[in-house]
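Usage example:
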Amino acid sequence: MAETLRFDADEVTAQVTEGIEKIQQASSTEELKSLRAQYAGADSAMTLASKAIGSLPADQKKDAGKLMGKLRADFGRAFAARETEVKAAEEKAALAAETVDMTLPVDRRPLGARHPLAKLMEDVQDFFTSMGWIIADGPEVETEWYNFDALNFGPDHPARQMQDTFYVKGDKARDAAGFVGSNMVMRTQTSSDQVRSLIKHGVPLYLACTGRVFRTDELDATHSPVFHQCEALAVDKNLTMADLKGVLDKLAVAMFGEGAKTRLRPSYFPFTEPSAEMDLWFPDKKGGPGWIEWGGCGMVNPNVLKSAGIDPKVYSGFAFGVGIERTLLLRHDINDMHDLVEGDVRFSEQFVMGE
Amino acid sequence: MPMVDIDWLKEHVEVPEGLTYDQLAKDLVRVGLEEEEIHRSTVTGPIVVGYVVDCVKEPQKNGKTISWTHVDVGEQYNATDENGNKVPRGIVCGAPNMAAGEKVVVTLPGAVLPGDFRIEPRKTYGHISDGMCASERELGLGDSHDGIILLRDYGFTPEQYEALKPGDDAMSLLHMDQPILEINITPDRGYAFSYRGVAREFHHSTGAAYTDPVVELNKHVPDLSADAADPAAKSDVEVAVEDNNPIHGVTGCDRYYARIIRGFDPSSPTPNWMRRRLTRAGMRSISLAVDVTNYVMLDLGQPMHAYDLDKLEGPIVVRRANEGEKLTTLDGKEHVLSPEDLLITDSPNGQRASRIIGLAGVMGGLYGEVTAETKNILLEAAHFDQVSIARSARRHKTPSEASRRFERGVDPQLQPAAAQMAAELLTRYGNGEASEHPTDLNNAPRAKSIHFKASEVKRLSGLDLGLNTISDVLSDIGCKLGGGGNGEFLVTPPSWRPDLGEPCDLVEEVARLVGYDQIPVRVPAAAAMADGGLTPAQARRRWVANTLAEYGLVETLSYPFVGDEDYKAFGYDPEATKQVSVELVNSLYGDRKFLRRSLLLTLAQTVQRNLRRGLEDVRLYEIGHVYQLDPNAPAIPALPGGVRPSDEDLAALDAGLPVQPDQVAGILTGNAIDSGWLKEKRPIDWSDAVEVVNRISDRLGAKLTLDQPKAEDAPAQWHPGRMAFVALPDGTRIGEVGELHPHVNEALGFPAHTAAFELDLTTLLASLDDKPFQAKPVSTFPPVKQDLAFTVSDDVTAAQLEAVIAEAAGDVLESIELFDVFTGKQLGEHQKSLAFAVTFRAPDRTLTAEDTESIRQAIVDKAATLGAQLRA
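Running the assembly step on the lines above writes:
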């Protein structure tokens, strides 16, 4: 380097001041880097001035050193401050550039759905298990004995005819009236599991059975040949219709919310005596609260207990059945049974995984 | 089901003034007679009495003759002429019985008849017809459409007929404006199939004063005790019951009461009030004799039959049919009779019991019925066995008003009173003379008494009632009570209540009359059940259901009915399948009269329905029963109810039933992933179904394995190269998974590569251990990761190779994952490359290079047993 080093305090101050001003104007990290090279790099006035201090007279060195220290510090502070600002601005711009429409639909793996009837049966089971009851499910192709005879429907009982039964074809067996057949039917009611369960578990017994039942009704808005029921059966010492009413009212609240309750009307079923139809008070009924038929119930007929070898003088019990479809139709304001049986995914998907 | 007419009900019970049908329905339902429907009038007026002033018969070109008439319909409704005077209306009538001087029923413009038939003035046959003269059918009053209603035939007394004035409201005259209540009768309440019974129930519900009509009638019944004492006294007709084939040992007829009416005038009309009541009850008015028997049946509940006495030859014999005998019933249908059918016969030409005149308690025969010429009538009031009548009505598919009552039980003490009532009506309205020597063949058993502890009321119903209340209620329903000390009664139920046989029946009577609403409410504690709650299998069934839905499948519950169409679509052999399938006798779905053995068949129907509705990417699953018939299963015995069968008999019941396991199955169509704008898209294939099965296996901790057969061993419904059996760890096959055969997809209209699975859920859940899972400790030593690629023959499966690697690596194997499958010429014919990423980690130390090398060598040696070579 041929040029002699010269220390000019004013000039270096002016240079650094100019550099600080430019830094404060800088708008990118690139620009900041080049300004730093220009005003603080190896060839910058500031670097040259610092080197020149060595050649100054000793009495000037101190002041010159002081000045350069200040200039360097000012420059550094200004640079750092601006660099922070510029980086923040740049990051902000970069992130802004990455902005997406978060409302775009994203469903790579759509959730499926439970069938509302299946889910409702689980909810009903939960109601009973929460009281310590057990859950059973008997065969759908059932012997006539469990479906009829054990339930006090004799072979010529008029009620046996009113059930619209699907009979199973066969020519090996003979029924009690002498007719040749299979002695098998599609169970017409979940009550067919009463005597099975009583024989299997003995007494005391608190049991609910949910499942499919079959009757020869053509599918229409309110009927289906295949539908679901929940049967409750309690047999113990000292059970009365008061206990029946207690459980019914609790179930009504569980299914239809606060304010729901039930009432009984005299009726007839072969497997209960006394027997009753059960009406539900539905507070959220469309068109205003009101009574709706919900199921049948009564005290277990002594002949049913005898079919299971239980002494009706010692034990008593109650039983009731409610339609799962009917419960679902009421709860969700569904007007057409077709929606429940056709399996159209659009229907079930509304319920997602159930409530 | 029976109709209840308040006007008629008043005959037996004091009905409050202004009782509405809505209130009546409420009163009756409280005691168990349920409302079926309140039928409201579907007719609106004006419908009035008209007097035919003139009638001109006008033959028409079409061969018909019409009547051009003027009918006086009263000041209010008459037409107005050009001078402003009221004049009779011009009406065109096509009925042949139209004549001047008749009083008729005129429907005027503005009236609406059943079927929304609106009456308006209309131009017809060259006249303006300003109204219509109505027939019974047009008014919904009956079937008659032979002519218009002539009110003189309507059973009014001469004074009443005279009093009918043009313009009188015919709707109230004929009770067309009244609603009527139809009720349901449960099978135990046969007696409520009568006004006598309904009135009694109304009394029970409301306390209104009730009069049993039978008590009064019985006072007038001829006393036969004198006849019995006098050998010379001749009863009306000789009757014999000769039942050689009683059902359950019960004779088919335990009472036959016959009474003769002589000198009957067959032209006598049925009185208007009776015709009206019958019509409103839904019965046709036929003739006075028939109408009276029907009226007595509706009123008292005793089905009756009226024979033309002059056509019969005694004795009357009640007997069973002989094989092959035939009978044409009143409705014109011919029946081939069964030896179980009970018949009414007579004995022409001395041939005893040779001619059939009726199917007892069901329907009369064509021969012997009363006609328009009948002058002497034989009335039959009998008591037949419920079972016998029910079976005959069912066998011949001819349920009748009579059979409906007999099969529910008729009061066996009612027959003389019923015949008396009919005799009184036929005498009064038909000028007949009733015999005073009826025949009464009476073997009806007396009602059995019930030993009744009053405490049963509280034990069963929860009602805490005094002894007096209990005995009052039982007396009120007609029971005779004895005893009462110690709270124990001997209760004899009334003859009309054959349903009362057990103490619990009496408890129901007490509870329903006191009111079910009086029973307290209590929630029972089920503390005695130690094993309450869901079983592990029930809980796991839910896990499976929820896992599948969370995976993206939609649950469905299909009907289990299948048939040829489904078998063909799935490539089954229909005949072989039917051999092992449950078949229904009375299917609702034609050919689909079998029950599924596989959920896939009915699930496919549901998938089809969704696809046809334009839905895509349909993925369905179902959990439900299948039915596996064993054609060699033993016959199921018929056992009596009310007795616990022996253990052997219980076993025999179950042995005859088909096995009915729960299955879980799914069908996946369309795209596995279709993310739309994200542009990620992949069609469903076998791997998706396998993934679902793995998900189920993982959720249950079941360690299911796949067992892929040779192509020729794959079942027909599956793609032969893309299916595997699903097996339990012990090798038991519990299902199938893969892609459906292209033929199946084609038959069902499914997209190519539709995937499916089906598992026997019952067996799967039963195989699981209920003990808590035993966890392994987590090692914190570093892992060693290696990639191992093998060349192996393509008939070795990935699962087989993976299994030997895992076995060779032993306990230090932390994970093994197949990351590449490759085939190519450089590998050679029938060779493939399988590359695994394996991670080793020891529980207690850092693995050294030597450790790793020895494990690796063990793997290579073991893999060689499958012919696998480690690639360089």
